[in-house]
Design brief:
By secondary structure, the chain is an alpha+beta fold. It is built from 15 helices and seven strands. It has helices at about 1-25, 35-45, 45-80, 85-95, 100-110, 115, 120-150, 205-210, 215-220, 240-255, 260-265, 275-285, 290-295, 300-315, 335-350, and strands at about 25-30, 35, 175, 195-200, 225-235, 320-325, 330. The strands form two sheets. The chain has a five-stranded mixed beta sheet. A two-stranded antiparallel ribbon has the order 1-2. β1 and β2 (about 35) form a beta hairpin. The protein starts with a helix and ends with a helix. About 20% of the residues are buried.
Length: about 350
């Protein structure tokens, strides 16, 4: 037993030393000056994490597949039957589907045009098949969990550590604390001291940014008093109205109406010409001449917009929307459940610390 432990320790030490050596090796040279892998990984830690995460998920998926193959083979051998029959019997015994579940799902989708064209018998058949498949997947995940717990399934490949980016909030940041456009004053926590701090990089012409807004509103509602949500500009070069829209929003923000302008522009993404921006702003701001003068002198806001974009590039943002929940990066038009998963994990960690 001691010899086995010693061999494991020696093997682990070799892996660590190899990793350190590789990190110190030059990745490339610029005019003779070497840039090491450690420096590259530090600067692009988010991108490298995503690559390593995909590699780990691929290995994990293969491990699950192989484990289930062996699990069903063992079941078949014990029962002296085929693998498919052993699995069928097991699922019939454990994947129970009630008629109330079937009725509830049929009722839920009865107004869907694609679903409504089927007869009632066909609707029930499709729903039963869907529920049975879902139950089977859940049962197999439980089998995998038990395999991990018992030690029959062990993944040796190291899971990559998620990077946490240090994003310092600035006085120029636009922040709100609740779902309302006027929730710009702290509601239970100060901006830099909220249990959950979210920084979003987005732009007003981005269709994916508008798709995520319902999830944002729900998060701000459910975690009201525990959250601050900050938006920073990241106007993409191929969206010609993204920068003028950002200027319009900041000019409205000078009068406390950033979020009202934010909502108006996302509600009207196809109408972001100067005359449209002016129309939205003048319905919101108390001092109309002040906004018009600000928008006319747009270059005065460029430094702020560029600084926001540069801060995003430093932490690996290349597209919109991108979110940082307490420094943990999420990218794309994600569903509510993805935000909730990370937020609840952060709140749980805070309780333990």
């Amino acid at each position: 037993m001691k010899l086995t432990a010693l061999r494991c320790l020696v093997g682990l030490t070799a892996i660590v030393l190899t990793g350190l050596a590789q990190a110190a090796e030059p990745a490339f040279k610029v005019y003779g000056t070497a840039v090491t892998m450690e420096e590259v990984a530090k600067e692009k830690q988010g991108d490298f994490y995503e690559i390593e995460k995909k590699k780990y998920e691929l290995i994990e998926s293969m491990a699950f597949e192989k484990y289930l193959e062996k699990f069903w083979e063992k079941k078949a051998a014990d029962q002296k039957t085929t693998v498919s029959e052993a699995r069928r019997v097991y699922m019939e015994k454990n994947a129970k589907i009630s008629e109330s579940e079937v009725r509830q799902m049929v009722d839920k989708y009865k107004d869907n045009p694609q679903f409504a064209k089927f007869s009632k018998d066909e609707q029930q058949k499709q729903v039963r098949e869907f529920l049975r498949d879902r139950a089977s997947r859940n049962i197999e995940m439980d089998i995998i969990k038990q395999g991990k717990k018992s030690g029959d399934l062990a993944i040796s490949f190291p899971e990559p550590k998620e990077p946490v980016f240090a994003i310092v909030l600035k006085d120029t940041d636009q922040t709100r604390y609740g779902p309302g456009m006027d929730d710009i004053k702290p509601l239970g926590c100060e901006r830099k001291a909220c249990p959950i701090t979210i920084v979003e990089y987005s732009e007003f012409q981005c269709p994916f940014c508008s798709k995520v807004m319902p999830a944002i509103k729900r998060i701000l509602t459910e975690y009201r008093g525990k959250i601050s949500w900050t938006v920073r500009d990241f106007p993409l070069s191929f969206h010609d109205r993204a920068r003028p829209a950002a200027v319009a929003a900041h000019c409205a923000g000078d009068q406390g109406k950033y979020w009202g302008m934010y909502q108006a522009m996302f509600d009207n993404q196809t109408e972001l010409q100067d005359e449209h921006l002016k129309k939205y702003a003048l319905k919101l701001v108390p001092n109309k001449p002040k906004w018009e003068e600000c928008f006319k002198n747009a270059s005065a806001k460029y430094a702020l917009i560029d600084a926001n974009m540069e801060s995003g590039m430093k932490v690996g943002v290349s597209g919109t929307p991108a979110f940082f929940i307490n420094g943990r990066r999420l990218s794309g038009a994600l569903p509510y459940e993805e935000f909730k998963r990370v937020i609840d994990d952060e709140l749980s960690r805070r309780k333990k610390s």
